[in-house]
Each structure stands twice: as C-alpha cells, then as structure tokens.
C-alpha cells in the first residue's frame, strides 16, 4: 500500500506538534525518587532548623505557599525579587516573609542535585514540614511543579488574594475561584492557629467593633494604638500561638477572632457548623487541613516543558 505525500505531510506535522507542545504532566509524590532521592529529607532538615530558630517562621512559610498558589498558581512566582510585581500587593507588602528560608533549603538541595528540584516544590514541601514541626498534621506533597519565568502583577495579586476585611461570602467566592470549597476555606483559615498579625490589620476591629469580646479588645489595644504602631504584632491565636491545634476555632464563639476575616467564620452564617465541628473534633480539623493543603498545592502548576527550574529562587537565571 502506497502512502501519499499528503499522508507524509500529515504525520510529519503531528510529530512536530508533539515535539513542540509541552507535556501535560501530572504531579506525583515520587517525582524525584530517581533524580534526587534525598531532596525531601534535605528540605526537611533545613526547614526544621529554621523553625527551631524562630517558631513564627512556620506560619510565615505556610502563608508564603498560600500566597504563591493563589496568584498565577503554585509556581514560585512570589519568590522572584520584583518590586513592582505581586510582592507589592497590599496583601503582601511588608508582611510576607520567609524568602531566605526557602532559598536556604533550595541551595541545600542544589548542592546535592543541581538543576533538578524546582523552587515551587521546595516551597510546597517547606509548608508541609513547617506545619509538622509545630505539631500540625503531615501530608503527602505532590511534586513536579516548575518555576514561573516572571512574577505575577501587583494587580492580579490584589484581585486574587483574600483580604483581612473580607466577609464570609467574599471568602467563599474567593476560594471557590480556586476550586476550593467552603470547608477547604475554613480548614485553611485554621492555619491562623499559629503566627501573628500586624496592628494595621486588626486596628479597626479592636476599636469600636461590636462583634468583639471587650476584654480581648482591651488586651489587643495595649500594643496597637489608634494611630502609629502599624507593624506591632499580636498572635492570631492568643492561647497557643506557637502550636498547631484547634484553639483558633475555640476563640471564635467567644468573639475573640483577631481579624475580621477570622470572626466572620462564626457569625451566624453557613460556616458556623464547620467551626463547631473543628472545636469538637480536632482530628477532623487536622485531616481536613491536610486535604485542603494538597488541593491548594495543585492549583495551576507549571509542568512538563512549561516554566523552568531556577537555580536561585529570587531571580530568573
């Protein structure tokens, strides 16, 4: 049977397309098993030391991963030093931190497997290891993300990241845009069981807000004046601020949520029952949090031939 020249042209065209188009690769927990088998243990050692040095860093790394994934997907774009990009968004500004810790973990991996493990994967693993280091749950991190060649825009970040003044419906909608449901949103908000917030983010709540416990407001005012002191810090969970547990949720029925976006989770709305469930069943909170972190880590990753593997996380080299 003879094959016409048209058939030859068709097959050649298809082959060319297959060679050019990046593969739609899926993330896998075993992605580095053969190419860098010690990657995860190396990252864990680096992150555990960083959290030992400063316990607040655990919350900062979880937040950094969250803010990366919600803007342009989990692609390490937030790690790029771009003063006019996503780091300049109001929700990031001077509050997003932990860059040097991720870079240190990345360089530790580069020392054993140069050019193999992406910054996006280092950040995803760092968030898991940091959570576990302060008593939180562990989970299996899917791997194989690649790094963005550029930071996202300031405007995109401000549009996609939730705000500390958001209503319950705004939060549900925001998370829904990332294929995360209401339970995911409440579980991920539970990361506020660790970490601290700046005075500027809760000032309006502690002065003249009726939905706050008066004694709690008085306590927080001691380090957050009505003017000035924007960067003064207060724990998001006043009970066990350095332990990953369910006390964050226990604070909410007492109107002792620090941020407006915390308290709206228990304010007579649809999420009240989820909060109550997490109060009654801390194991359910831990399992839901782990599941939600896995889902969040799968938001629009670059895989296959897309993106690159940056040798340093702060620059596109």
Give an overview in words.
- The relative contact order is 0.17.
- The longest helix is centred in the N-terminal third of the chain and has 16 residues, at 5-20.
- The model is unreliable at 1-24 (pLDDT under 50).
- The radius of gyration is 22 Å and the shape is globular.
- The termini are far apart.
- Helix content is 47%, strand content 2%.
- It is mostly helical.
User: How many strands in all?
Assistant: 2
Provide the gyration radius in Å.
22 Å
Helix content: 40-55%
Order of helices and strands: HHHHHHHHEHHEHHHH
- Report on the biggest sheet: 2 strands, antiparallel
Count of helical segments?
14
Low-confidence stretches: 1-24
Q: Using the alpha-carbon principal axes, give the shape.
A: globular
C-alpha end-to-end distance: 52 Å
Strand content: under 5%
* Alpha-beta content class: mainly alpha
Average pLDDT, rounded to a whole number, is: 92
Strand order of the largest sheet: 1-2
Function: Removal of H(2)O(2), oxidation of toxic reductants, biosynthesis and degradation of lignin, suberization, auxin catabolism, response to environmental stresses such as wounding, pathogen attack and oxidative stress.
GO molecular function, one term: metal ion binding
EC number: 1.11.1.7
InterPro entries: Haem_peroxidase, Haem_peroxidase_sf, Peroxidase_pln, Peroxidases_AS, Peroxidases_heam-ligand_BS, Secretory_peroxidase
């Amino acid at each position: 049977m003879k094959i016409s020249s048209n058939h030859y042209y068709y097959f050649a065209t298809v082959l060319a397309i297959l060679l050019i188009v990046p593969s739609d690769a899926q993330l896998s927990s075993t992605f580095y098993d053969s190419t860098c088998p010690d990657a995860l243990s190396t990252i864990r050692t680096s992150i555990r030391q960083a959290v030992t040095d400063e316990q607040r860093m655990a919350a900062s790394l979880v937040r950094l991963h969250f803010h990366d994934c919600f803007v342009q997907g989990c692609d390490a774009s937030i790690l790029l030093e771009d003063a006019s990009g996503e780091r300049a968004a109001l929700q990031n500004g001077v509050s997003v931190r932990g860059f040097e810790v991720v870079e240190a973990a990345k360089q530790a991996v580069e020392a054993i497997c140069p050019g193999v493990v992406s910054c996006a994967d280092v950040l995803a693993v760092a968030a898991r290891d940091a959570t576990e280091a302060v008593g939180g749950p562990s989970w299996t991190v899917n791997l194989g993300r690649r790094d963005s060649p550029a930071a996202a825009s300031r405007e995109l970040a401000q549009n996609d990241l939730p705000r500390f003044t958001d209503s319950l419906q705004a939060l549900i909608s925001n998370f829904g845009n990332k294929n995360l449901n209401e339970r995911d949103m409440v579980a991920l908000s539970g990361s506020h069981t660790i970490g601290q917030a700046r005075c500027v983010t809760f000032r309006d709540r502690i002065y003249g807000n009726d939905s706050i416990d008066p004694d709690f407001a008085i306590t927080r005012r001691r380090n957050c004046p009505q003017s000035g002191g924007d960067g003064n810090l207060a724990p998001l969970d006043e009970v066990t601020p350095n332990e990953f547990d369910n006390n964050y949720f226990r604070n909410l029925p007492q109107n002792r949520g620090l941020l407006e976006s915390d308290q709206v989770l228990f304010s007579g709305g649809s999420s009240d029952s989820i909060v109550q469930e997490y109060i009654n069943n801390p194991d359910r909170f831990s399992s839901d949090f782990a599941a939600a972190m896995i889902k969040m880590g799968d938001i629009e990753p670059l895989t296959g031939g897309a993106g690159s593997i940056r040798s340093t996380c702060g620059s596109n080299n």
